[in-house]
Design a protein that fits this description.
The structure is a homodimer of 252-residue chains. The first copy, chain A, has 252 residues and is of the alpha+beta class. The first copy, chain A, folds into two domains: 64 residues, Winged helix-like DNA-binding domain superfamily/Winged helix DNA-binding domain (Arc Repressor Mutant, subunit A), CATH 1.10.10; 168 residues, Chorismate lyase. Chain A is 25% helix and 34% strand. The first copy, chain A, contains eight helices and eleven strands. In chain A, the strands form three sheets. A six-stranded antiparallel beta sheet of chain A has the order 5-6-7-10-9-8. In chain A, strands 1-3-2 form a three-stranded antiparallel beta sheet, covered by helices on one side. In chain A, strand 6 and strand 7 form a beta hairpin. In chain A, helix 1 packs across helix 3 and helix 2 crosses helix 3. Chains A and B meet through helix 3, strand 8 and strand 11 of A and helix 3, strand 8 and strand 11 of B. Strand 11 of chain A pairs antiparallel with strand 8 of chain B. Chain A binds a DNA duplex (30 and 30 nucleotides) through helix 3. Chains A, B: GO terms for molecular function: DNA binding; DNA-binding transcription factor activity. Chains A, B: Keywords: DNA-binding, Transcription, Transcription regulation. Chains A, B: InterPro entries: Bact_HTH_transcr_reg (IPR050679), Chorismate_lyase_/UTRA_dom_sf (IPR028978), Tscrpt_reg_HTH_GntR (IPR000524), UTRA (IPR011663), WH-like_DNA-bd_sf (IPR036388), WH_DNA-bd_sf (IPR036390). Chains A, B: It comes from Streptomyces longispororuber.
DNA sequence: CATCGCAACATCTCTAGAGATGTTGTGCGG
DNA sequence: CCGCACAACATCTCTAGAGATGTTGCGATG
């Protein structure tokens, strides 16, 4: 038939619901392969495109992941806990410890690639940093990898004039990182603002994070201020949402 | 043909890219209708299913929204700024002001529906609140609407024993809200933890928030602690990610 | 002038088949 | 015993057509 009696829902939704239930009850465990196009066609007596629609629905929900030529597999979810406040406490970066150390329980989060350039900052960033038309920005682009999987893209902007000739303009910023160096320059960050939002990744982000379709990214925009209230750093981060839980602790 | 020469990308991706470019350059403005299935079939000489795939891609990216029988329209994005820290400052709720007032610039965020029940808390919540097998929880479920659009679902758990007979167990908690009442009970919240993550909505969330496919939700789990470090409230929120930006301010 | 019914048009769902392309394991040859 | 070629199998892409269903605006009717 076609567009048959809508007693409740479409065929592909019924099939998807059945598979979804199987995942939630644990019939199909994370990493396990589940029935593919051909299996569903045979089992439910539907056309290929209909079976595909059912699987596409589950992919869009982020429950499963299709690997071409191999099959459809149940996704896993073991997020990193990222402490928004404590990780930026001075006790952390003041002592030469990586501010990332506190994030992960035993797992291995490392910088995959670093690129430091001097370029013109986007208008919105230039405005925040108080850069004029002529001023340029030091831009630090980094990618972080956990267990071989890229999970975080970070782009950091600072006044080029301020950091020129310091380790901040080098790939390796030394013990304590950028913030320890800023303190040595008399521009210690004392206050932070983080803005969080979420959306679907664009093609570029999708490629850099090797994300499978149907998973959102979280965006964190962090601004660091010194004791004069001047913004000294703007950091834009793109996180694989399936890899992260953000935690913020604060007092009333 | 079929699965033709992959010089670079599939037909449906080329078509999607073209429309995407049109959106980004402003050729198609928010709210405007863009070429539908029939237009794309004619313009590119492809089959209906191929045109549909192109449009499905843009929907999955959250760029457009299809309205059955009407057409495909460009999405808009005007988020609410939610201040994670300041909104819970005592100056806010201590003075009888709604903690929501600071969030929105002139727009109208109101509670759409409130349901207060007494039931058994989920195991994870019971653990945090320190509830035993016998203890029950006061559960406050609310939906918030902005400009007629539902944007936030909130489920709040408190010890039923603690709040029984107080306004907290009523739909209207009075000036200053739940936290002002908790203070009167000698359990003033002094510390908060918020955990943020993001994923695609499930069917129920999708329906309650009237979300169009391809937009993620953000989940906030907030725990409020009193001066003894005891958890007095657990609040699980589901936010339409296209409606919110979360802001957290803190010191090093 | 208001309102209701309907036609035109939009997306949604589905069928049946087929070539392209990526993955995996097996078996043969060195 | 190692390694490579290849067959089997998986998903991906696309065609052409058609009935179902929701939206909208126009025209006829009261």
């Amino acid at each position: 038939m076609s567009g048959r009696s809508r007693e409740r829902q479409a065929k592909y939704q019924r099939i998807a619901a059945e598979l979804r239930a199987g995942i939630e009850t644990g019939e199909y465990e994370p990493g396990q392969r589940l029935p593919g196009e051909n299996d569903l066609m045979a089992a439910h007596g539907v056309a290929r495109m209909t079976a595909r629609q059912a699987l596409a629905l589950l992919q869009a929900e982020g429950l499963v992941e299709a690997r071409k030529g191999a099959g459809v597999f149940v996704r896993d979810f073991k997020p990193i806990r990222r402490l928004g406040v404590e990780r930026l406490a001075r006790a952390q970066w003041g002592s030469g410890r990586s501010i990332w150390a506190a994030d992960i329980g035993g797992r291995d989060l490392v910088v995959d690639s670093v690129a430091v350039t001097e370029e013109e900052a986007p208008a919105a960033v230039a405005e925040i940093l108080g850069l004029g038309e002529e001023d340029r920005a030091c831009v630090r682009r980094r990618r972080f990898v956990l267990d071989g999987e890229p999970v975080l893209l970070s782009v950091s902007y600072l006044s080029a004039e301020l950091v020129r000739g310091t380790p901040i303009a080098q790939p390796d910023t030394g013990p304590g990182g950028t913030y320890a160096r800023l303190e040595e320059l008399g521009r210690r960050p004392v206050r932070f603002r983080e803005e969080v939002r979420s959306r679907m990744p664009n093609a570029e982000e999708s490629a850099h994070l090797r994300m499978s379709s149907g998973m959102p990214v979280m965006l964190i925009g962090r601004t660091a201020f010194d004791d004069q209230g001047r913004a000294v750093e703007v950091n834009e981060m793109v996180l694989d949402a399936s890899a992260y839980v953000l935690e913020y602790n604060f007092e009333a």
